[in-house]
Amino acid sequence: QVQLVESGGGLVQAGGSLRLSCAASGRTFSSYVMGWFRQAPGKEREFVAAVSGSGALTTSVKGRFTISRDNAKNTVYLQMNSLKPEDTAVYYCATLAAWGSRVGDYWGQGTQVTVSS
Hints:
The chain is mainly beta. 0% of the residues lie in helices and 52% in strands.
C-alpha cells in the first residue's frame, strides 16, 4: 500500500510558475515509476509526466513542465513554468505499473491549479 499526498497547487496568473510536490509513504519509493496526471473541468484525466526510479523522464507538456524526484525524501515534483489558463485542472500524482504505462495504481487526492488570464 502506498499513500500519496500532493501539495503546492494554487492560483497563479498566466505566465507564472508553480511547483507541485507529491510525498509518498513506504520504503520502496525508489522502485516506483511515478506520474503526474491532470483533469480539467468537463474533461477526462490526462497524462502529464512520468519519472522512473532511475530518473528517466517523459512529459506531454514539453518545454514548460518538468518532472523530478528525490528518492531520499520520497517525493516527486512537477515544476510548471509559463502557465496558461488551459493548464487549469486538478493535478494528481500516481504510481504507475511500469515505465511506459499510463495507468495509475495508487493515487493522491489531487491539488487544484488555477491559472488566471
